[in-house]
Amino acid sequence: MHASQRSTGAAIEIRKASKRYGAFTALNDIDLDIRPGEFMTLLGPSGSGKTTTLNLIAGFTDITSGTLQIGGKSVTGLPSHKRNIGVVFQHYALFPHMTVGKNVAYPLALRGIKGDERAKRVRRALDMVKMADFAHRYPSELSGGQQQRVALARALVFDPPLLLMDEPLGALDKKLREWLQLEIKRIHRELGTTFVYVTHDQEEALVLSDRIAVFNGGRIEQIGTGRELYDTPATLFVGRFIGESTVLRGSAEVSGDETAMVIGGQKVFAHGRLADGARPVILLRPERVALKRAGADVVAGENRLTGTIAEAIYLGSGSKYEVRLSDGTIAVVRSPLGATDFVIGDTVDVTFLRSDLILLPDDASADVTLT
Ligand SMILES: Nc1ncnc2c1ncn2[C@@H]1O[C@H](COP(=O)(O)OP(=O)(O)OP(=O)(O)O)[C@@H](O)[C@H]1O
């Protein structure tokens, strides 16, 4: 599509929004600002409130308390068909008795757009999803991925300022999903429409999003870019949900601006301290940890814990190890190509810089929710 065809994306502002079903609170006091043209992903485990949030924006369900604005206007009480929003769901809701062309033309027919203008827009939308050659087929004659591309064309054909997608790739196999992720990203870049995307797949969220809102138990734990969530998670739940990690627990002592933790009889040090009363844990990212032969020289500022290689996996681009520490914790380590190789049973030092570890308050829900 040409720059002249770019639509202006709508901003979304959600304030203190709650959604209750009887005594059950599905959404608990969430605040969410989405910028015009942004790709925002709602990420979280099953039942955390992602779909409920999308349904509130779409107008499929009412807010119990709080406010919701789209494009600077309150939409309270405005029915979904008046919100001018494109929607794509996991299970293709194409009309089975209509051809692809008719399906994509449908939103235009509803809006009274006829003749050449309608045909031109349908062609443009099908071109965008690379389905122009399929206009005369019926949905049953298409693969799952092709059906989702048609659903996307139908959701975008009327140039909505806002597109909502709920696990649109959930039913597709991995290769197809990865290819369509890139297609969706390209289309977003070309259009300038605001995209709000629901997934429980953190890798998908990282590939697609400008920013990600991480949901847990009806609340938003953190909103940020993938990099912010990975490097500086606000909570243990976010740190564990995004990317791989190892969590170290032990008895902690705080002295001045430093926290020491005893793990399996060995002491490690962290810069900083938590608020009084919080029980600290250490979160390690696998590529921020290096393995060394037991007894190698210690580098200034380095922590080390002794362990035994429990699993060694060669990945081509490097190796991944699981190391059993003396307290039984399994530490995940990714070594770059060219680093020393280790085999199962080797005794190693697991080393990491104080500046590379992440100190967070312990949170039992981070473990429960992920299992
Ligand atoms: N109509 C309803 N009546 C009662 N409870 C509901 C209703 N709709 C949703 N819920 C509950 O609200 C909670 C949040 O649901 P929601 O669909 O938003 O979760 P989700 O994060 O999208 O999960 P999933 O990835 O499984 O779709 C769930 O516990 C769900 O059971």
Automatic annotation (TrEMBL):
SMART domains, alphabetically? Answer: AAA (SM00382)
GO molecular function term, any single one: ATP binding
Give UniProt keywords alphabetically: ATP-binding, Cell membrane, Membrane, Nucleotide-binding, Plasmid, Translocase, Transport
Statement: the UniProt record of this protein carries the keyword Transport: yes
Per the database record, which ranges form the ABC transporter domain?
A: 12-242
Q: Does the keyword Amino-acid biosynthesis apply?
A: no
Family matches, as SUPFAM superfamilies? MOP-like, P-loop containing nucleoside triphosphate hydrolases
Question: InterPro entries under this entry?
Answer: AAA+_ATPase, ABC_SmlMolc_Importer, ABC_transporter-like_ATP-bd, ABC_transporter-like_CS, Mo/tungstate-bd_C_term_dom, P-loop_NTPase, PotA_ATP-bd, Transp-assoc_OB_typ2
**Highest taxon of the source?**
Bacteria
Give the similarity note: Belongs to the ABC transporter superfamily.
Protein name, please? ABC transporter ATP-binding protein
Report the source organism.
Shinella sedimenti
